Amino acid sequence: MAHDAPPRWDRRMQQRLARGEAAALGELYDRFASLVHSLAHRVLDDEDAADRITREVFGYIWEHPDSYDPKQGSLRSWVAGITRHQAVQRLRQTEADSARDSGEAGPASAESERELERKIHEASTAARADYIVTSMPAPLREALELAYFQRRDYRQTAADLGVTEDEARRRLRLGLQLLSTAHNHQALPAVPMRRVARGPHTPRPPHPAPPGPGHGGPL
Hints:
Helix content: 55-70%
Region (Disordered): 90-120, 185-219
Largest sheet: none
Mean pLDDT: 77
CATH superfamily of the largest domain: RNA polymerase sigma factor, region 2, helix turn helix motif
CATH topology of the largest domain: Rna Polymerase Sigma Factor, Chain: A
GO molecular function: DNA binding; sigma factor activity
Family: Belongs to the sigma-70 factor family. ECF subfamily.
Order of helices and strands: HHHHHHHH
Distance between the termini: 16 Å
Number of helices: 8
Domain RNA polymerase sigma factor 70 region 4 type: 133-178
Number of strands: 0
Low-confidence stretches: 186-202, 206-219
Keywords: Sigma factor, Transcription, Transcription regulation
């Protein structure tokens, strides 16, 4: 998955979207659709729902390119924040609809509220962990994948990467420090997501293709 683009690319993309360049939306989709779909799927665990979130996110970006502030971070991070926010909102709505359909409508018990918040927190944390792993520098990501997904110890990791054992330990330590921020992240970005009213000239992003097995990594 691609890392953050240079800030100049982010600003230029925002300007092109603000001018209504449909080709810019296509380029943005090609770059970030897999990210959006995998994060949404990580939260919702539903292919169709992830497809809908993907379309909604790119529809929102097309209608509101000025909502992005380059001073607040990269375009990739902004897109990921919109996705997590929208997916969590959809999860809340899905749980509420499920409770109503099962005849449990009415004031929720404290226990059911805690269970819902736990589920949302776990889903959001998993999605953020996926994003962190795919965004971290390749040397750190490779060390984590060898040590934790392929069960290599730090000596084997060092040999596989062709680095010293001290360097392997350093990469693992830094990677784990970055990954730990997923669990410390309490609040999602406050991104207002209004329903997009499509006009006759509003381009529709192509139907998202599944990003591949695992939908974002085995975290």
